[in-house]
Amino acid sequence: MTTITPGDAARRGPGLAGRTLLMSGGSRGIGLAIARRAAADGANIVLLAKTAEPHPKLAGTVFDAAAELEAAGGHALPVVGDVRSDDDVARAVGAAVERFGGIDAVINNASAIDLSRTDAIDMKRYDLMQDINARGAFLLSKLALPALREASRSGRDAHILTLSPPLNLEPKWAGMHLAYTMAKYGMSLVTLGLAEELRGDGIGVNSLWPCTLIDTAAIRNLPGGAAMAGVSRSPEIVADAAYAILTSDPRTTSGHFFTDEDALRRAGITDFTRYSLGAPEDRLARDIFL
After folding, report:
1. Which of 72, 164, 208, 266 could disulfide-pair with 187, CB 3.0 to 4.6 Å?
2. Residues carrying an active site annotation
3. Looking at the domain assignment, is residue 92 inside a domain?
4. Angle between the 29-39 and 236-246 helix axes, to the nearest 10 degrees?
5. Is 231 part of any domain?
6. Cβ(192)–Cβ(202) below 8 Å
């Protein structure tokens, strides 16, 4: 298989120019990298995020992200809102349709994490993870379905892409952090169910998960974060993988739980060293659930 550069990933497909993506979160980190990759093609990107004000430890608001996407060549619409709110999600869907005429792809990126064990986790944190992760992915996908069906009927490629891991019933993962596993697997069940439910509509529904830790501000703010970042890959590996999926044929690419490496191999990228941040490939920290 021929190796191609990340900037050329999946350019054998139609690209994302003029297509409209609706993403939950995206103010920073992996979500922003995915949005920035789409913006480079001239995509329209609607970001639904709570970050109206600067965070004391994490740089970037939804407005900063939108400005960055415009500078990268895209068209951005920041929507301040919470993926847990039915009204906010409906408002974001409506804004996308009103501003850009439709929705071609939904990216369920927003997520909350708490790796506490069962006896230690606060139930407010449990509810937060369930509401953002599982319910949020379900709600955003659900409310965007009419627009996605219209895109597919009009001959445009329609996708739902969720940042969630492969479903794996090996007891190890539930036993390590049950509450978080339930919330993330809830997102993955959205992929499993909607891929089957929407097969006749020609809408591609897939999940994407990194093979290694990804260097983000959130990682760097954890105890030992600098060391963790040193054995991580850059967010661009997930961005290029998402691009490869979003530029694939949704009628033949659906119901998959891709790792970033899987998605890139399908696009012709077999050398991942360019995404490493200094550590040899065999020293990179593997992500959980794999």
Report:
1. 164
2. 180
3. yes
4. 50
5. no
6. no
- pTM, two decimal places: 0.93
Query: By three-state DSSP, how is residue 105 classified?
Result: strand
Query: What is the residue type of 78?
Result: P
Between vectors from CA 80 to CA 78 and to CA 82, what angle results, nearest 5°?
130
| Encoded tokens for 125 | 């944190």
Q: Give the structural domain span for 40.
A: 6-212+236-272
* Two structure tokens written together for 38: 């789409």
Q: What is the pLDDT of residue 17?
A: 97
In a domain, 134, yes or no: yes
275 alpha carbon, distance to own chain's centre: 18
Segment 200-240, tens digit of pLDDT: 999 999 999 999 999 988 788 878 888 888 999 999 999 99
Site of tokens 């996308």:
96
Give the residue from 255, 250, 215 showing the smallest Cα distance to 232: 215
CB atoms within 10 A of CB 122: 11
Return the structure tokens found at 105.
């792809």
Residue 150 to residue 159: CA distance in whole angstroms: 12
Domain CATH for 134: 3.40.50.720
Could you tell me the two tokens for 252?
A: 């033949």
pLDDT score, position 51: 85
Residue 203: what are its φ and ψ, rounded to 5°? -100, 125
On whether the CB atoms of residues 195 and 251 are closer than 8 A, the answer is no
Q: Which two tokens stand for residue 229?
A: 């970042």
